[in-house]
Amino acid sequence: MASGTDRDPSERSDVEPDEMIAPAPLLAVGAFVLGLVLDRIAHLGLLPKRWNRRLGIGAITVGVGLVGAAIRRQRAAGTSPDPTDEPPELVTGGVYSVSRNPIYVGQTLAYVGLALLLDRFWPLVTLQPVLWYLRRVVSREETYLEARCGTTFQQYRADVRRWL
Question: pTM of the predicted model, to two decimals?
């Protein structure tokens, strides 16, 4: 299990919901489209096609499954997957017992899987700023949850990894 020290001290945690650039899925789509444009300029393949297909489909399947399981778990708890909504309670069961951020992990896996499936390198490059931004958003969310849930969140953070 992860320790509670996986927070990068250089991360800012002051990104407020109304300051978010855009929802994570929209940022990912924009980054992917930019990667496809760059790929048209200079195509760089990734792996042999048979591996791209297998790994891509596998990553997409696992990613979509994680997102779906996380959303189902949130709805069952009466919460919303929208990061700007205040959750009525801390969701810790199901996929949330493996990752504190299964939706972001699932979206990233599906994104990488699509890049592999299409044999496109540049979308992986354009994903990096999105991941950097998501780290800031998650840090802000964790600061909020710690203030709201106190020792319950501190224990959850100590027991469950941020990503995987």
Answer: 0.80
